[in-house]
Amino acid sequence: MPLPVPAARRPLHTRKVTCQGYFRDDGLWDIEGHITDEKHYPQDEGWRGVLQPGEYIHNMWIRLTVDETMTIRDVEAATDNAPYRICPDITPNFKRLIGLRIAGGFRRQARERLGGTQGCTHLVELLGPVGTTAYQTIHSSKAVELMRAHKAQQAAAKGEPVPGRRRPRAPEAHRPPYMIDTCHAWASDGEAVKQWAPLFYKGPDGEAVREDAAAKIRSRIAAYDAAAGD
Fold first, then answer.
1. Helices and strands (H and E) in the chain: how many
2. Stronger pLDDT, 185 or 153, i.e. the higher one
3. Phi and psi (nearest 5°) for 140?
4. Per-residue model confidence as pLDDT tens digits over 30-51
5. Element containing residue 153 per DSSP (H, E)
C-alpha cells in the first residue's frame, strides 16, 4: 500500500537515483548509476551563482563494466554539476574499483579505495544501488539466455562447437548468496532462503532442507554425466 496522506507541506529538496543494467554486444555488462539533487527554491551556490528551482546541485554518473562473474572490468565516472569546481577532479580515482567483485564486502572494499578525500561522497553512495542493480541484471533468466546466445554466436563465428550446458557444481562448491542475513526477508532461517537458497537455510528443519537440496543437485550431476556418456 502507498504511504498515508501526508500533512500539509511544501517541497524543498529532491534527490533522484536511477540505475540501469545493460547487456553489451561483447558479452559484458554495463551497470549505470545517475544521481541528481535539486532545490525547490533559489539558492546561492557561490561560483555557480544563484541556482533556480530545478537546476541541479549534483548531477553525477558512474558506469561499471562487469563480466558474468560480477568482476569489474572498467569504470567511468562523470560529474556534470557539483557545488565546487574541483569536484570533477576526483572522478579518475574510481578506476580503482577495477578488479573488485560485486559480492559480499563490495561496499567496504570500495570505501577502502575511495573513502574520505580519495573519492566523492555521492558517487561512493551510488555504488550501493549500482551493486544491487548489477545483481538484479545479471542473475536473471533473461541474462542467462542472452549470455548463452552470445557464446553460441561467438563459437559459430570461430567454427567451434556450440557450448552446451555446464556440468552442475557439487553442493559444496556453491557459495551463499550475498543477501543472506542482510535484511528481514533474507534471514538465513527464513522462508526466502529456504525456497531460493536451501543449501544455506538454517531454520529449525535446516538439516533436512539442506540434505534434500544437496541430493537434488547430486541427482542433476548424475543425469548430466549419464547424458554426456551416451
1. 5, 6
2. 185
3. -145, 160
4. 999 999 999 999 999 888 999 9
5. helix 141-157
Catalogue the long-range contacts made by 199-206 (C-beta closer than 8 Å, 24 or more residues apart): 199/171, 199/174, 200/176
Residue ranges of domains in the chain: 13-138, 176-230
* Residue 118: all three cell numbers together: 580519495
Question: For the CA atoms of the chain, what is the radius of gyration?
Answer: 23
At residue 27, φ and ψ (nearest 5 deg) are 90, 0
Q: Give the integer Cα–Cα distance in Å for 76 and 91.
A: 8
Q: What is the pLDDT of residue 69?
A: 93
Q: pLDDT per residue over 198-215, tens digit each?
A: 999 999 999 999 999 999
Q: Please, are residues 162 and 150 in contact by the beta-carbon 8 Å criterion? A: no
Q: What is the DSSP string of 20-66?
A: EEEE-TTS-EEEEEEEEEEESS-EE-GGG-EEPTT-EEEEEEEEEEE
